[in-house]
Design brief:
The chain has about 260 residues and is of the alpha+beta class. Among the domains are: about 5-75, no CATH class; about 125-220, 2-Layer Sandwich (Alpha-Beta Plaits), CATH 3.30.70. The protein is built from 8 helices and 5 strands. The protein has a 5-stranded antiparallel β-sheet with strand order 2-3-1-4-5. The longest helix is centred in the N-terminal third of the chain and has 17 residues, at about 55-75. The radius of gyration is 38 Å and the shape is extended.
């Protein structure tokens, strides 16, 4: 200890143990700075853009709060999400669903043999006509409207309604047009090139509309669910007749070739 230290001790009243300990080990401010500038805290300062030279004790408190918030946001174990309370009561499905057998559903394929496979192929002449269902939503309806107008101008088809809600087995808004078999080799490639990215279902019309929608389908772009499992099979009560196509559109423009 040098002369200046002796003078400082004398000016404070002599040999106070607290004063000596404070001078040997540093003040509270010194300790706060040491904690702040520890390696982990220096990394935190760099990450948050804080400048050590501009921080006083109040700045240290704000830095500690920011660090706590940062740790919570990064998945700190102290963070707990606020969740609604659990529901009370009994499930409407009962308590025995785990005991239900997981059996095979009825096949969508018609005329299954004993092995689950048809004995012979179906003749292609069972197809009487085709439907094209163009699906859209609030983001893609303008594309569907453009495609619909192109179809109206170019093909002698049966044009259905512009459906703003799901209709029949179709689970999104859509429009459909039906066409005869002779147009198939033209309509399919035309839709492939002019779909505008929309999802389009093409299915035949045979005596089994359930299989037509679920098993005999062609898709342009992505497929999507079709809720046709409730449709009746041929011979069942309420089974629909084979769909007829009655064109209601007269083209006004020649088809581009």
């Amino acid at each position: 200890m040098n002369h200046h230290d002796d003078h400082a001790l004398a000016s404070t009243g002599g040999n106070s143990g607290d004063d000596i300990d404070r001078r040997l080990h540093g003040s509270d401010d010194d300790q706060a700075w040491a904690d702040l500038l520890a390696p982990t805290r220096r990394r935190f300062l760099r990450a948050t853009g804080l400048a050590a030279g501009g921080l006083g004790l109040s700045g240290l408190a704000h830095a500690a709060d920011a660090e706590a918030s940062s740790k919570a946001a990064l998945g700190d174990p102290a963070f707990r999400a606020i969740v609604p309370p659990r529901d009370s009561g009994t499930s409407p499905w009962g308590e025995r669903t785990a005991l239900e057998p997981a059996t095979r559903p009825a096949s969508v394929r018609p005329r299954d043999g004993a092995s689950g496979l048809p004995d012979t192929p179906r003749p292609y002449t069972d197809i009487r006509s085709y439907h094209a269902h163009v699906y859209f939503d609030e983001d893609t309806y303008a594309k569907a409207a453009r495609l619909r107008q192109w179809v109206i101008e170019r093909f002698p088809v049966e044009l259905g309604n512009w459906n703003l809600e799901p209709r029949g087995p179709h689970v999104t808004p859509s429009f459909y047009f039906g066409f005869t078999n002779d147009l198939l080799p033209v309509v399919v490639p035309w839709l492939q090139l002019n779909s505008l990215g929309l999802t389009i279902l093409l299915h035949p019309n045979s005596d089994d509309p359930r299989a037509d929608h679920l098993y005999y389908t062609l898709w342009v772009n992505r497929s999507q669910p079709v809720n046709a499992y409730g449709m009746k099979r041929p011979g069942e009560p309420g089974a629909p007749p084979i769909e007829k196509i009655l064109p209601n559109i007269v083209p006004t423009r020649p088809l581009e070739t």
